[in-house]
Write a structure and sequence with these properties.
Length: 148
């Protein structure tokens, strides 16, 4: 089975895209960035959700969204990227190491994939400069998604 969880900051707002790019844009674009956890697992789905809610989520400042569909439907596009299979992902390894210490968790993580999602807002937004400046092809894989 597979589950996808996206962690969204409750108090975060859209930021200026110029923070992400090396060259200035001619458009006043905004963005939001979140982390998606894609988990292939066997066992109890409720126990997995409890693990994610306890270990990966700060319930005071964050919200958990399940299912993998983009959260912000009004974004022009979503740039989703993450580490290639052979690249060292310290957050992923820390999560898996913590999971291995649990006694009888009622589920097993078969595969964990962490992906960043950058939602870009504003008419005329083009994904090309974001892919060029955010994605490092030596260590990242990426995909451009339609938000709606």
């Amino acid at each position: 089975m597979q589950a996808t969880f996206e962690i969204v900051g409750k108090f975060e707002t859209q930021s200026d895209c110029h923070k992400l790019l090396y060259a200035p844009l001619s458009l006043p674009l905004k963005y939001r960035e979140h982390v998606c956890y894609k988990i292939e697992y066997t066992g109890d789905a409720a126990a997995l959700k409890q693990f994610v809610s306890t270990v990966l989520l700060d319930p005071i400042s964050q919200e958990l969204h399940e299912g993998g569909a983009p959260v912000w439907k009004d974004a022009q596009f979503v740039l989703e990227y993450g580490m290639k299979g052979g690249a060292l992902d310290l957050e992923k390894e820390t999560i898996l190491n913590y999971f291995r210490t649990l006694k009888d968790p009622a589920f097993h993580i078969d595969k964990l994939t962490l992906r960043k999602r950058i939602y870009v807002f504003g008419q005329g937004a083009d994904p090309a400069p974001f892919v060029r400046d955010v994605v490092n092809p030596a260590i990242h894989t990426h995909e451009v998604l339609k938000a709606a």
